[in-house]
Amino acid sequence: MSVILRSPRHRRCAIALAALMAIPAGAIAADGRLLATGGATQFEGSAGGGLVPWAVLSGYGTDTQDGGTAFATRVDTGDYSLDAAGVAYTFRNRIELSYARQRFGLGELQRRLALPVGRFDAEVIGAKVRLGGDLVYTAMPQLSFGVQHKRQLDFAIPSAVGARSDSGTDVYLAASKLFLGAAFDRNLLFNATLRSTSANQAGLLGFGGDRKAGRSLVLESSVALLLDPRWAVGVEYRQKPDNLGFAREDDWKDAFVAWFPNKRVAVVAAYADLGSIATLDRQRGPYLSLQASF
Question: Would you give the DSSP letter of residue 153?
Fold first, then answer.
């Protein structure tokens, strides 16, 4: 697996990641929280897994520190590809603000249908507030409320197949808890996220449709086993609405391995099963994400 930096935007993100990795360890504001407790960055820009936002906030800053992340992600199913890059910043481990830019490569669909464009671009502006609890130190889970405002930037084709709008706002409530020594003397993380959304394929194909125009309440979940402080393995599941009549929309799932060599860098590799996307079935393939924390 490899991240293919095809555009100036992705090359700039790689340069930013390299620069952050070069910051001396003593300059990182993230010294207060435990390694890996900030999670990775999901493809929509929020702290969490690859597909699902968790209740944790980006970076490693404590209640008296700020911190954040920059990330680059690529998913390739053979027929389609998705590149995402962005940044997030957390204030005093209380409020996370994030931005992600996405590029959805149409690949095989463009060739079959002779479409006039080869990709869709989208952006996600996010905010997350920690409501209470702590991932590690309290009996109750960490609870966070999040908002993701999404805009599809190439709406002509999604509109033609039934999408109602080029923008929409997801809201979600996430609960995350790390159980120490819970499985074979290893730490075990559970996350559950309840999302209200009208997005088609997470917003890449617009919002609402001819089958259903309004919102759906969907469940997302993650389980991760920390093999040691630097390595974790896990699975994720994300329910999806099914708004468009021209093609069904399946739930997403993945199995992942995450490596946290230090508090500056995280690498997540996964195998993602995205089901049927825009009439093409069995969309499965590798997922790779690089994250730098500051």
Answer: S
- The two tokens of residue 132 are 């209470």
Q: What are phi and psi of 112, to 5 degrees?
A: -70, -40
Distance CA 87, CA 66 (A): 14
Dist CA 86 CA 103 (whole Å): 12
- What CATH number matches the domain at 9-293, 2.40.160.40, 3.40.50.1240, 1.10.760.10, 2.40.50.1070? 2.40.160.40
| Helix (H) or strand (E) run with residue 267 in it | strand 265-273
CA distance 95 to 68: 11
Every domain of the chain and the residues it spans = 9-293
Residue range 39-93, pLDDT digits in tens: 999 999 999 999 999 999 999 998 999 999 999 999 999 999 999 999 999 999 9
